[in-house]
Amino acid sequence: MPQEKTSRRAVIEAIQNSPGLSALLTKTEGHYVYELDLEVVVYGRNYNGKNVGPYVRLLTYEPGETVVTEGDWGGNTFHVITRGQAEVWRGTEKVADLKTGTTFGHASLLAGVPRNATVKATAQTPVEVLEIQRPALRLLRKLPEFSASLDDAYRKHSRDATFDLFKEKFNLSDEFIQALRPAAQFRVYSKNHVLCRGGSSVTRLYVIREGWVRRTRATAQGEVNDVLGRGYVFGLNSLNENAVWPETLTLLGRTELVEISAVQLRQNPALSQDFQTTFAPFAPPPLESKPVISLPIVKQRTLKAQEELIATGLIDGTNLLVMDMALCVRCGNCSLACHKVHGQSRLVRRGVHVNRLKTPSLNSAQSLLAPEVCMHCQDPECLTGCPTGAIGRQAGGQIDINPGTCIGCSDCATQCPYDAITMVPRKATQGEVTPLTFNQRVLNLFRLASDPLPPAVEALDDLVAVKCNLCSDRAGMNPPGSKTKKYSCEENCPTGALARVNPHQYLTELRAKEGTLFTAPNQVIAKNIHLADWPKRLLHLIGIVLTLLTIYATWRGIQTYELGQPVYSWLNMRWLTGLVGLFGIVGAMLYPWRRVLYTKRRGALRYWLVTHAYLGVIATIQLLLHGGTNAGGWLTTLLMLTFDLVILTGLFGVACYAIVPRLLTRIEDIPLLLDDLLTRRAELREELTNTTQAAAPEFAAVINGAIKARYFSLSRLLRHYVKHEPMNQVIENARREGLALAKPVRNTQLIAATKAAGLQDHIQLAKESLRDKRKMDLLIASLPDLTKRQALQIAMTSLRAGMEAVETAAVTAATLRRVEALIYLHRLLKLWLPPHVASSSLMLALLVIHILQVLYFAAR
Predict the structure, then answer these.
(1) To the nearest 10°, the Cα dihedral for 239, 242, 248, 252?
(2) Which of 194, 369, 572, 828 could bridge 323 with an S-S bond, Cβ 3.0-4.6 Å?
């Protein structure tokens, strides 16, 4: 372990001896220029009872002792050697020496990647290192020399790291790398930067390290464009001749690249030829020459989804939570599981919504929601503003918050563009959840009411930031030594709609647009349960086989022995079918038991639901055969009736889960919670009422009559389920229909108004003027009589307002009906549950009585 020098004077001396940091001690007229920053960095400061800083530690490492280790996540600190020397090792090979004044570890901090080398003290002498925490970076950036040296070091390190990858991948010689190095620079560009314009001379080659590029070419038929990602080399054609760029290259986000001078390469023909031969496989594919307007709809939708995924930043997450809305049954179990595990839910089912194609086919359309949950970004914005370093990248690579050093300033919450960080009262994080009694646990299995929502956060003081930490600190979900990572939200989704994924692997339309230059040949693709959930498929296969085998075995047994003849000793087919049915019911009832186990890993809930369904089917068949043709007494008859009700409601629930979510994704533009839909319905009803009340009586009658009759009819409701119409098309159709329904009233009043003004021969012009205010003003101004002019103006203005009221009412009514269609689907997903749970409870009670009755008569 390193020895820390706690003397602040020693820390000041170390800063004084560091070329880049010494400017922090600059004085003017006897006063420190950066006095406040120096105080926070070196001594720390108290703000309203909250400690901020210090941000530096002076550590001494013994000879041979490791400072940082290759492969570790080190995104929270970087180091400066203040005395002695250190060595850089990659694997078992020493690659460099670090002298006094050298900064290291900054690349891991700035790029959000693991350490790419091990740094240790030399074997002969100790090394003194100044360890600097991330929050100090924004203060030290004020020092021009330090900021410039840090940027230069980062660019040099990143360039050399890229060359090391080239050397390893292509087995390049040291001579090749040394010759290439002077011509190359590492660059970082921001969003919308234009790398080059089509038709301009190629003077540089670009190797895309991280980021996305849009290629655009103007043709006589239209504009052609596509999207490409990391791993491509642009400009290789310039090495043979003075070429021009065929397309314009625009960056779609923060992009890291290596920029190589084509002029310098051409001055060394041998190097130029070797470079072109080596990197030719990574040249971008030709941009299609067809204009965008003639592209198939599949390609148009894929390109749109690509740009949305890049623009929203979903592709930049390292651990992205996604919900396939065609599988989501809107039960809220994921959010509830998060609340049960952490004491405050960190999952809100609102967020970024994207319509995409899982494969190049319209049949593979996917409505994908990335809820407001931390994506553990590679370059997280939340880290930059934290004044205490409470939020940082942990050992597993996830971003997490240390509540002990969080001062509740909310900087991280305001910086996060995805609303993934919440401020909650600190005391709430310290309290323990009261364990349930046995009676409460039993009642909880069969509850009908929804779980109570957590109380709203109303406190303003003593807050702490909370966010998703991938359940890393939950021993029940991820016990020490566990080989796989489990997440409470994913484990407690009953249909498998929710999954934690690597976006570069999950989003196939973007993965296909990335080159292979920086991809390892044996890179493993993470399991995508939305594409192939093999355990679930295996359970379906086992369930089908067991169901068929039990049916066959039971049917053969009844044919051979009937129900009453002994099969073995006292066992007959009635006993066997009853026992198998009983075991099936007991197995099926394990599902509600598992459903309330949120804090422990007991297998994914989606697997339990499949097992529950098949065991229920097996129990159904066995008990129907067990009963035979004789219903028995009234108690047995009631038991069979409740059992039938359980099966019917369960089958209805299975049908709802299979059909309703897909209907919802067809007719909703953006996934909304039921509470949001109910609020929107109330707003639309109020808007429709206000529009009707403000309209003239004749037009109000049209709204209350024809408009409401048309849009609030059953046929219009069913139309939303049967006919897929985008909302903008529904609104446009409503406008036309509203104007058509108001036309008879408009014509009657228009004829009367024009006749009174003496313009009965200009009725068509009057109709046109209702849609064009300029024409209406000209028509009114053409009347010489002032009285008639004023009367016509009042009549025409009233008609125009009435038509607009009817049009607005039609649009509002059509939107309201769409919202109601969504509300009914949401409620349908839960409609079957109360009778299913109630009938199951009654069935179990009657079953216990039936078993006791059977045992009693058997004992007699």
Answers:
(1) 30
(2) 369
CB neighbourhood size of 410 (10 A)? 14
Return the DSSP state at 524: P
CA distances from 554 to 572, 574, 746 (A): 11, 10, 75
CA 274 to chain centre: 43
State the Cα–Cα distance between residues 627 and 473, nearest whole angstrom.
52
pTM of the model: 0.84
- Rounded CA gap, 18 and 83, in Å? 9
Decide: 413 and 374 in contact? Cβ < 8 Å: no
Four-residue CA torsion sign, 428, 432, 437, 442: positive
Rounded CA-CA distance 114/395 in Å is: 10
Give yes or no for residue 575 having a pLDDT over 90: no
Angle at 384 between CA 378 and CA 388, to 5 degrees: 120
Which pLDDT tens digit goes with each residue over 388-434? 888 888 877 888 898 888 888 888 998 898 999 999 888 754 434 45
CA separation for the pair 516, 524 (Å, rounded): 14
Of 661, 670, 667, nearest in space to 352 by CA = 670
Q: What DSSP line would sit under 710-757, residue for residue?
A: HHTSHHHHHHHHHS---HHHHHHHHHHHHHHHHHHHHHHHHHHHHHHH
- Count other C-beta atoms under 10 Å from residue 483's C-beta: 4
Do the beta carbons of residue 317 and residue 499 sit within 8 Å? Answer: no
Cα separation, 582 vs 301, whole angstroms: 52
